[in-house]
Specification:
heterodimer; A: alpha/beta; Alpha-Beta Plaits; 2 domains; four-stranded antiparallel sheet; 13 helices; 30% helix; B: alpha/beta; FAD/NAD(P)-binding domain; five-stranded parallel sheet; 13 strands; globular; disordered N terminus
């Protein structure tokens, strides 16, 4: 059994699965339930001067039969008093000494930051997360993403916190910024112990086409919310990896954004996260999903012969390169496995109308292909014209049958040549320009 | 009064229309209620989302009316059921009844690629969902044409073939008069579908739909008796013949004549015309035959309260023309299927009432030759015999109507399968009288194909369903949209 415990910038937890600051982390009651279910850490719903929330608060993007592919939220930070929150943190820490309880904080002046940090440490918090990312409500008051979007301000505030904190400090970054790496570097300069990302993304999920007001509906109006859930995972992965590969950042990362299961978590870890945080998946299905996450990750690590989560951290970070350093001479092409092909011909029409016109429909009888599962007499089957296939992957993406269309490497004996190499060689007159695609 | 007006303004009344209403009987005979529950909105959406939206979808090739199934399903998935109904009804005017009576297992759903390793998409139920949606809300999805051509077409027989032809012609601007000998058009759709599959109201609503397109349906008119065929040829620019099949084939055994023995189709017709409690059903019913009508009869007899209901077939189960899923349904409903049972005599008591059927067991040799096994006779108790051993062709009637019309050796009107054209220039034919007896959906498709050919003949325009090029198959071989060359699927 692989060791799932982690140490993220000095915060230890029995497994890498933390609950992200949000509606599931508002109370001690939830913390007890979460730790009983198997969560490793609990980032308390952001504590600050209590606010007043509106009704209603969430909306979602559903896709087909799938509910909540993305969730949009206009709830603010904790609406409970600072005293109540810290009193409950103390209660929770007493009962769960080996689990991580992190106080997420948001306030404005240096004095108030110092005060919150002190009270948080007194309550027994294992660390702090600075909420520089909340994209609604608080930013209009000069907090949340208003801080995160300005690296200088973020650096300043982080340094105030570092003056007072003896426990590790995580700076939570907003994705609503041109390049998240600058904000991460600011956190580093200020001495933070770790970063967490991403916070939610500015969003409008949908428009009610009868009322012409989006949800969440508040008395005839709505507002821009924060988007999260499975749909944001690709954006989050991109930002996590960007921070992980940046030499100036060099901070442990707590990955957040659309993580719903062990696979998502493993991908975040492979792209440089030390641990992960989950919120929307729990809002959708409750705390008990963590059983699958713990078991799945453990089994995966065992299968890979890894002794601990640490061995997985960052495994894929350096597989990403700048586009100009990719090999232009690499050739991939699609191959159809006719024993699996059910004859939906979606690959044909995707290629024909949507890509590069290199999948023909042919007569399976005349071409010795015969009938596979679900295919009928006289029914055309797709055939790749490999010489014209650019290896774009689209057919394999639309194919509804697992492993039916495989993208295979076509060896061509050519030396690797990136765009940068190509430009060099052209400049030196070592080669002719590659002719444009006909 | 026109049927459309009756349906639209008064609803279907048992008294005024002498047709059964579901409300009246279903509570007394719960087993006669619809076998399949309609899909709820949520179930329909979830089911629709299972469709892969295949390009060149095989379900279309397997539909004899070539409905663009992936497109209508996609419309359901996005909450546009009225648009889905338009897609269906444009291709198949009897889409609502086909949704209920089609053997989808060997048609669209049998071809569904999703079905290769799990349940195919429930195309029939989705089609019902969409067509019910517009019927229940009285949404008009097919607009009648505004400018009529100068051409008039007579349709002889108001069954599925005739209606398919009439609706298509009307939508192309030609005036159509349908001559129907019965009180209501619709043919077997109105009178002959198992009651637990479809209520006759669905057929009547479809008649109203056809009429709403401007088609005139004259009921109670027998061509050749009430109006001479020559008059049709003289008064109309084209004639479509869709008269279906004739009376049932006789068994030819002693005791057959007399009370207690009747055609299965007459029994089924009673179910549609009488209050269910008044339909004569024996205590011990024996249905002779091995086809789907035999199954419908035996199953309905059981559902109407027969103590035993047995279907007797002369050969083995593999030779039965009834679909496997129909046989399974009958058995699940408590019917018995007697195989290799050849009726020898129908026994009657001194009062003339049927009291049993004498069967002899048969053997079928390797060459398929069937012979009785001597001394193997047995007599199951029986007080009602229903015959479902096929229907006669209307050869004599056809010869009387159109003496020049070529009829093949099997008694079917000779037609060009692509156009329904017969040996007579102005006369087209389709449906059971030309194909010898197939599904409702085949009849609609053939009527429609003939309509397109008539339109071409009259207006000089080639009209056809809009097809993506590859639906014509590869190597010039038409895979068809279904309407041109429907693919038949083996039962899984």
């Amino acid at each position: 059994m692989a060791d799932l415990s982690i140490d993220l910038g000095g915060i230890r937890s029995p497994n890498p699965f933390w609950l992200a600051s949000g509606p599931p982390t508002s109370t001690a009651y939830q913390a007890h339930r979460a730790f009983e279910a198997g969560w490793g850490g609990f980032v308390w719903k952001t504590i600050g001067d209590p606010i007043v929330n509106v009704s209603s608060r969430y909306s979602a993007m559903h896709l087909g039969s799938m509910r909540i592919v993305g969730l949009n939220n206009i709830e603010l930070i904790s609406d409970r008093s600072i005293e109540t929150n810290f009193r409950e943190i103390a209660e929770v820490k007493k009962r769960w000494p080996h689990h991580a309880v992190i106080a997420s904080l948001m306030t404005d002046t240096r004095e108030k930051w110092h005060d919150l940090v002190k009270r948080g440490e007194d309550a027994g918090s294992d660390g702090f997360e600075l909420n520089f990312g909340c994209p609604h409500g608080m930013c209009e008051r000069g907090m949340g993403s208003a801080v995160g979007q300005n690296p200088d301000v973020a650096e300043k505030i982080t340094s105030w916190v570092m003056e007072a904190a003896t426990k590790p400090v995580i700076v939570k970054l907003t994705p609503n910024i041109t390049n998240v790496v600058y904000a991460a570097r600011a956190a580093k300069r200020a001495g933070a112990n770790a970063i967490s990302l991403i916070n939610t993304i500015n969003s409008i999920t949908n428009v009610d086409l009868d009322r012409f007001v989006p949800e969440p509906y508040v008395d005839g109006a709505s507002t821009h919310g924060g988007y999260c859930g499975p749909a944001v995972k690709p954006i989050a992965l991109n930002m996590v990896q960007s921070c992980a590969e940046d030499a100036e950042v060099g901070l442990p990362i707590s990955g957040i954004g659309g993580i719903s299961n062990w696979r998502d978590a493993a991908e975040f870890i492979a792209l440089g996260s030390t641990g992960v945080q989950v919120c929307t998946a729990v809002m959708h299905r409750g705390f008990r999903i963590v059983e699958e996450m713990n078991e799945g990750l453990s089994a995966y690590l065992d299968g890979k012969g890894m002794q601990s989560v640490r061995e997985l951290v960052g495994k894929a970070v350096h597989s990403l390169r700048r586009w100009e350093n990719l090999n232009l001479n690499f050739k991939r092409a699609a191959r159809i496995n006719y024993d699996l092909c059910i004859g939906c011909n979606l690959c044909h029409i995707a290629c024909e109308d949507g890509a590069h016109q290199c999948i023909d429909l042919i007569d399976p009888e005349a071409n010795g292909i015969g009938y596979g599962p679900g295919r009928m007499p006289h029914k055309a089957v797709p055939k790749i014209r490999e010489e014209d296939c650019v290896g774009c992957n689209l057919c394999s993406l639309v194919c509804p049958v697992d492993d039916c269309i495989k993208m295979v490497e076509i060896p061509n004996g050519k030396e690797p040549m990136s765009w940068s190499n190509y430009q060099d060689r052209l400049a030196k007159g070592e080669m002719q320009p590659i002719p444009p695609h006909p | 009064m026109r049927l459309a007006v009756l349906v639209r303004e008064y609803g279907i009344q048992h008294d005024s229309l002498t047709m059964n209403t579901p409300h009246q009987n279903d509570t007394l005979f719960p087993l006669m209620a619809d076998k399949n529950a309609p899909l709820t909105d949520r179930a329909a959406k979830a089911e629709a989302l299972r469709c892969l939206f295949c390009f060149d979808a095989p379900c279309i090739a397997a539909c004899p009316t070539g409905i663009d199934i992936p497109t209508f399903i996609r419309k359901i998935s996005t909450g546009h059921a009225a648009g889905a109904a338009k897609t269906i009804l444009t291709a198949n005017i009897l889409g609502a009844s086909c949704a209920r009576v089609c053997p989808t297992q060997v048609l669209c759903e049998g071809a569904c690629v999703v079905g290769h390793d799990h349940e195919p998409v429930k195309i029939g139920l989705l089609q019902r969902y969409a067509t019910d949606y517009v019927t229940e809300r009285d949404i008009q999805v097919l607009e009648p044409v505004k400018n009529w051509s100068k051409f008039r077409v007579a349709v002889v027989g108001g069954g599925p073939a005739g209606l398919g032809c009439a609706a298509e012609l009307a939508q192309r601007g030609h005036k159509v008069v349908v001559f129907e000998k019965d009180s209501y058009a619709g043919g077997l759709n109105t009178y002959g579908i198992a009651y637990y599959k479809m209520k006759p109201q669905v057929s009547l609503q479809e008649l109203a739909l056809v009429e709403s397109l401007g088609v005139e349906i004259q009921t109670g008119v027998t061509v050749g008796k009430d109006i001479p065929a020559e008059k049709l040829l003289a008064d109309f620019d084209a004639v479509f013949v869709g008269i279906g099949l004739g009376r049932g084939v006789k068994l030819g055994v002693p005791g057959e004549e007399g009370p207690g023995v009747r055609e299965a189709l007459d029994f089924i017709r009673d179910i549609h015309e009488l209050p269910l409690a008044e339909v004569p059903v024996g205590k011990h019913v024996v249905v002779i035959g091995g086809g789907n009508t035999a199954i419908d009869a035996v199953d309905q007899a059981k559902r109407l309260g027969a103590v035993t209901a047995a279907l007797a077939y002369r050969r083995g189960e593999d030779q039965m023309s009834a679909y496997r899923f129909e046989r399974e349904l009958a058995r699940a409903d408590g019917c018995t299927i007697l195989l290799n049972a050849s009726p020898v005599e129908i026994l009657r008591g001194t009062d003339g009432r049927v009291c049993g059927v004498k069967f002899v067991r048969t053997e079928v040799d390797a060459c398929g030759k069937m012979s009785p096994v001597a001394g193997s006779e047995w007599i199951p108790p029986c007080d009602q015999v229903l015959l479902a051993i096929g229907q006669t062709k209307q050869e004599g009637f056809l010869r009387k109507l159109f003496p020049q019309l070529k009829i093949d050796a099997k008694g079917r009107v000779e037609v060009d399968p692509a156009t329904g054209a017969t040996s007579m220039a102005k006369v087209f034919a389709g449906g059971d009288c030309a194909n010898g007896g197939k599904e409702v959906v085949n009849a609609v498709g053939e009527g429609k194909k003939a309509a397109l050919a008539i339109h071409k003949m009259l207006a000089g325009e080639t009209a056809g369903p809009h097809l993506q090029p590859s639906r014509y198959g590869t190597g010039g071989r038409p895979a068809g949209s279904g309407i041109l060359n429907p693919v038949r699927v083996e039962e899984r």
